Structure formats: C-alpha cells, structure tokens
DUF1572 family protein
Amino acid sequence: MSKDQDSIAVILESLLFRMDEKTAMILKCLDMLTEDELWVRPNEASNSAGNLILHLCGNITQYAISALGRKEDIRERDLEFSTRGGYSKQQLTNKFSKVLKEAREVILSRTREEWLSEYKVQGFVLSGIGIAVHVVEHYAYHTGQLAFWTKQLKEVDLGFYSGTNLNTKNDE
C-alpha cells in the first residue's frame, strides 16, 4: 500500500468510526421514542425525528451511494421534510440500516483515484474525500438535533458517554 493509500485509509477509518458512533446515538434515540413521538414536530419550522431519519437516508444516498458510487440519483428531498407519518419505527430503522450498509460498502470499495476524483452532487463539485467529509459532518449535525429533541420529549440524559471519563486530560 502506498503512502497516499495509507493516508486515505486512515481518513476513512476515522470517518467510519464517527459514523458508527453517531449511528449508535441515533438508534438509542429512536429506541426511546414511541411510535407517536417519532412524528411529533417541536413546531412547524422544525422536523420530527422521523423526518430527520428520512433526510439522513436521502442525503447519504445522494452523496455516498449515488455520487460516489456512481448510481442514479433518485432522491426526492422535499418528501423527506413533508412526510408526516406512514413509516413505523421499525420500517424507518430498517430503511436507515439498509442505507448505512450500502454507503459503507461504497466507501470501503473506492480506489485512491476515486477518492481524489471530482463528483457533481446536489449542485456542488466535491472530491470523493469531500463527499465522505460532508456525509459525516451532516450526519453528526442531525444526530445532535435528534438527541436534543429526544431529551426534550423524554426529559432524560441520553448517557451517550456513560462509563467514559470525559474530564481526562490529554496528557493522562
């Protein structure tokens, strides 16, 4: 493996670690919500947990699976936000898991050249690495929204880092 390939592998390992971390957080939130709470919106300018899952599925599909994986772009973005139900928690979880699995397969199968190539996605031109960074930062952003909304609905600490001393100093 060349130095460039090693560098890309390190980047991808870090990005996939963060996706896995956020996936666990999202699944914990979904597990805590009832079927009815899944589609509750804080207000009309905000999205329900169900909408956020549909939106993440759409975004990951468009960026990672379609653009990076060079498949047809079938995303219907407006539906991700206008949907007011129609999916059970299990159906949403299954859809979400399927999208994540397919995206992971695409990410793990790209070549060095594909990571450095440019892709047009959602009107932007990004490198393969740029797409992966976008997917992870977008994923983390909406994970925070899901966590905040779950805390609001349930009035509990989600305990994402239970058992980890987050006060440990860097040199310890």
In short: The two ends are 33 Å apart (CA to CA). Residues 3-32 form the longest helix (30 residues).
